[in-house]
Amino acid sequence: xGVMGLCPNACTRLPIRVIRLQRRFNxxxxxxxxxxxxxxxxxxxxxxxxxxxxxxxDAVSSPDDEVSTSTMCNQAPFSGLEDVxxxxxxxxxxxxEVAHAVWKKVVRKGDVxxxxxxxxxxxxxxxxxxxxxxxxxxxxVYAMDVQKEALESTxxxxxxxxxxxxxKLVELYAMCHTKMEELVHIGxxxxxxAFNLGYLPGGDKTLKTLPDTTLLALEAATxxxxxxxxxxxxxxxxxxxxxxxEFKTVESFAAGLPIDxxxxxxxxxxxRPLAPVLVLLYRK
Length: 284
Ligand SMILES: C[S@@+](CC[C@H](N)C(=O)[O-])C[C@H]1O[C@@H](n2cnc3c(N)ncnc32)[C@H](O)[C@@H]1O
Known about the structure:
This protein has 284 residues and is of the alpha/beta class. The chain is built from eleven helices and eight strands. The chain has an eight-stranded mixed beta sheet with strand order 1-4-3-2-5-6-8-7, with helices on both faces. It is globular and about 45 Å long.
């Protein structure tokens, strides 16, 4: 299997190369807009504990062999997922597309979401489109990465893809995702934390997410997401060294979450052993 098959966002590599070429030759680059590009180390001192929507959305507990339901799940129509799921089953859609389609069913305009590994910004952009409510200036994306190159790539993608008003709804941070709680303000209702693990496509493959820090970040994510219908979405890549171990770490963390508060599942192509796996942790 070629490298393309293993890389996250493989089909988007061409635009990234174009962006890098543009940078190298210094053309087409928009003037940087410092007021819009929030590149901060460690964010604010504020910490939050944000279980604000608890009572009305509390999950109905059920025996192990039954499917638990939350109020939000009962109310939400699931149409729209069929196409992408069938596309995935027929080998025509990527697991990242399934992830985005599931996010769409959980996230609402005005929500606050976290991109824990912003990389080249494709997930950040997808999240922004879900939350952006320009009229009320509501909706917010906290996006982070440990690599400056990744944050620049994300900023560049956002600058050319969204309006100035929408762009203001994203804050980019140069920080490790284990510290995500430092970004969250009291009152933020975090509906989604997304991880797209591994290395920066088109970047240095030795700079990648690692099982130990991923585990700490997952623990942090479980503390920040709001009860009553929120999601932690994790795309794991198995093709690079350490990738399978990291997936196992994610899987066993998910398997250990209590069933009265969480529904955890994975989407895996079993006859492509190196295919990326989507692990979804749904907070009821
Ligand atoms: C597969 S890429 C993410 C792709 C991205 N979501 C996108 O849509 O383009 C993984 C990213 O995780 C970043 N990363 C690695 N370790 C990290 C950490 N501890 N905290 C935050 N980001 C990290 C890498 O620098 C890399 O850019």
